[in-house]
Amino acid sequence: QKPAMHVVKRPRYAPRLDSALELVRALRVHSAAPSPAPRLLGTHDGHFHCDEALACAMLAMLPTFRSHELMRTRDAAALAACDVLVDVGGVYDPASHRYDHHQRGFSESLSECGRSVKLSSAGLVWRHHGLELLRELTRPEALPESDLRVLYNKVYGGFIEHIDGIDNGIEAGVGGKAYSVSTSLSARVGYLNPAWNEDVSADDTNALFAQAMELAAGELVSCVLRLCTEWWPARAIVARALDESEAAAAQLSGSERSARRQLLLLDGGGCPWQAHLLALEAERGVQPAACIKYVLYADARAQWRVQAVPQEEGSFSSKLPLPEPWRGLRDGSLSDAAAIPGCVFVHAAGFIGGHETKEGAMQLASKALTLLGAC
Predict the structure, then answer these.
(1) How far apart are CA 182 and CA 220, in angstroms?
(2) Which domain of life is it from (predicted)?
(3) What DSSP string runs through 213-279?
(4) Half-sphere exposure of 256 toward its Cβ, with a 13 Å CA cutoff?
(5) Would you list the DSSP string of 3-20?
(6) What residue ranges do the domains of the chain occupy?
(7) Which of 171, 329, 350, 354 is positioned for an S-S bond with 321, CB 3.0–4.6 A?
(8) What Rg value do the Cα atoms of the chain yield, rounded?
(9) Phi, psi of 329, rounded to the nearest 5 degrees
(10) Which helix H or strand E contains 43, and what residues bound it?
């Protein structure tokens, strides 16, 4: 009998990812302009960072720049002859494709999207070429411009912004660090640089930079395609559930009506709902007192979860954590405390709980609202 083989599951968007990475791998990297001179993208040589690796990779995936090659140098005359400069040159001028952020007085951010983090070369290239790149990566679908704009903002906030922040020395939060993150994309790109005590040629460093571009591109493209195939389709599900919640509440009165309006039932199981719910409520002008406090959905074991809505996407701080007396309890102890049979658990932090049935989960969530004075 043959031993069982380990099967590596590839995401359904893998062919698109492969096609995008082929474009990045095809970008030839030089230390000086070859002869005859091709059209060139330019960046600095020496130690590299994630921002210029990602910026160059994004450009390589665009039709406008697919015939270009890349030159890494600090020779000012050679750089001046390049069609595009990234992370070098001391100029930010999108009209002439100059994307540097090191010059004195530079303070650009993606303020048009409500962002305040200072842009690096990655953010600058995304600002001016991100929508075009999204159109390329999502082909053959022709997404509406409004959908592309949502994805553009989501990719920046969820992927590129932290690269901008790290490159510009901006801390992720205020106060001291509770722990260090040594495995971020920026860190892993940094590890590809030659060691300080390693003797390598310029060609060797260029080859390592090519690896850095492929690494950064792979994660960006995976992020984009994951959002398109997994995250974006959930918006319609959440919107429909919001409509159903309003319709169900309209059939009730008093405190029952108030409670039902604050519960979102996802009958199709869990989906990435947080960002969609918060955005849709903002679009609809839902007041804080009436906003959804708990989302209910079936888990992989066909039991039901009651999850508190976070203050913002990804936050561990909930708008209305489950009642403190329930937290950390399980099974019979929780059922006794809540006076609801069939309870499974409530997390010690109060952000999620579980029940054996949908009806029981509804009772648990409704009782939490009552106990906490939300209805």
Answers:
(1) 19
(2) Eukaryota
(3) HHHHHHHHHHHHHHIIIIITTHHHHHHHHHHHHHHHHHT--HHHHHHHHTEEEETT---S-HHHHHH
(4) 6
(5) PPPPPPPPPTTHHHHHHH
(6) 14-170+181-231, 234-371
(7) 350
(8) 25
(9) -90, 155
(10) strand 40-43
Q: Which amino acid is at 65?
A: F
- The identity of residue 231, as a single letter, is W
Give the distance from CA 30 to its chain's centroid.
32
Residue from 27, 41, 53 nearest 163 by CA: 53
Sequence letter at residue 54: L
33-91 per-position pLDDT tens digit: 999 889 999 999 999 999 999 999 999 999 999 999 999 999 999 999 999 999 999 99
Residues 43 and 94: their CA atoms lie apart, in Å, by 15
Count of C-beta atoms within a 10 Å radius of residue 351: 20
Amino acid in position 77: A
Instruction: Please answer whether residues 284 and 315 qualify as being in contact, where contact means their C-beta atoms are separated by less than 8 angstroms.
Output: no
Structure tokens at 67: 């015939």
CA distances to 26, 256, 352 from 251, in Å: 61, 10, 27
